[in-house]
Specification:
Order of helices and strands: EHEEHEEHEHEHEHEHEEHEE
CATH class of the largest domain: Alpha Beta
CATH topology of the largest domain: Rossmann fold
Number of helices: 8
Distance between the termini: 12 Å
CATH architecture of the largest domain: 3-Layer(aba) Sandwich
Shape: globular
Strand order of the largest sheet: 7-6-5-8-9-10-11
CATH superfamily of the largest domain: Formyl transferase, N-terminal domain
């Protein structure tokens, strides 16, 4: 959306007339609704919505429009969030040795598919430094081995806060985040996992898949929580495999799954197409 606009995300108890009330508020102030995605969860009795509102012809100041929505939002007992358009989300990418997900993120950012500004690439190994240097992005190597782990996460925190980072992407970052880190940045950390969770957790997932004779492999992009690999799922990708595929073939196919899943997961998040609802994520696809 190139013109000035807003994204509105909202969740509230389901009730009659929500769509009409929101649409009327926009129309009253000459806001042009260019997208209105909604979902009524009948089992949970909750309503979720994502709107894009063009504001070039708005009859009031944009901030007044945002502030004025509060009366309606409170009457709906809603939780809501506005984001001004256009924007680029300040993002830190954490890596270890593997670089395919990092390269995918850099490529799609360069193409303009991901409205993010990568403030830094942070690694607990030096392997991705050359990629960061080639892209002109600062690389910070942080030693996290042994008893330096706690100090390493403290250093990462300092970088994230100093760079005013909004999103943290774990692009095959092979460290388990401390509980306090997960809680402090809840809803702002995205991870890619090399399977359909919770299958094949641990080392050598593709060897495990090969030994079990699986017919499908996949990757899962999810929000990070203190419970390991159990956060709300944003995106999943699948690839069919056959008996003649070796573990090396599964690694190759799995990398494609990981790259596609993490790219779509980031895209959903930065375009405010996700709403976290307990242990799951509501995702409005584009």
């Amino acid at each position: 959306m190139s013109r000035p606009g807003l994204i509105l995300k909202l969740s509230c108890p389901d009730q009659p007339g929500i769509v009409a009330k929101i649409a009327s508020y926009c129309a009253m102030h000459r806001g042009n609704l260019v997208e209105f995605n909604q979902f009524s969860d009948q089992l949970g009795a909750k309503f979720f919505a994502r709107l894009e509102i063009e504001t070039s012809e708005l009859a009031v100041d944009v901030q007044d429009f945002i502030d004025g929505f509060g009366t309606l939002g409170r009457s709906l007992q809603a939780v809501w969030h506005f984001r001004r358009l256009p924007y680029r989300m300040r993002t830190a990418v954490l890596v270890t040795k593997t670089d395919h997900c990092l390269n995918e993120i850099l490529w799609r950012t360069e193409l303009g598919e991901l409205p993010i500004e990568i403030t830094s690439i942070i690694g607990n190994r030096p392997h991705c430094r050359g990629i960061a240097d080639h892209a002109g992005i600062p690389f910070h190597e942080i030693d996290m081995d042994g008893d330096r782990r706690a100090a390493g996460f403290t250093a990462i925190r300092r970088l994230i806060e100093a760079q005013d980072v909004e999103l943290i992407v774990l692009a095959r970052f092979m460290q388990i985040l401390p509980d306090d880190f997960c809680n402090d940045y809840a809803g702002r950390v995205i991870n890619i996992h090399h399977s359909f969770l919770p299958a094949f957790i641990g080392a050598n997932p593709y060897k495990q898949a090969y030994e079990r004779g699986v017919k499908l492999i996949g990757a899962t992009c999810h929000y990070v929580t203190a419970e390991l690999d159990a956060g709300p799922i944003i995106e999943q990708e699948v690839e069919r495999v056959h008996h003649f595929h070796t573990p090396a073939d599964l690694v190759r196919l799995g990398r494609n799954c990981e790259r596609n899943a993490i790219a779509r997961g980031i895209r959903h998040h930065v375009h405010d197409r996700t709403i976290i609802d307990g242990h799951r994520a509501i995702v409005f696809p584009d």
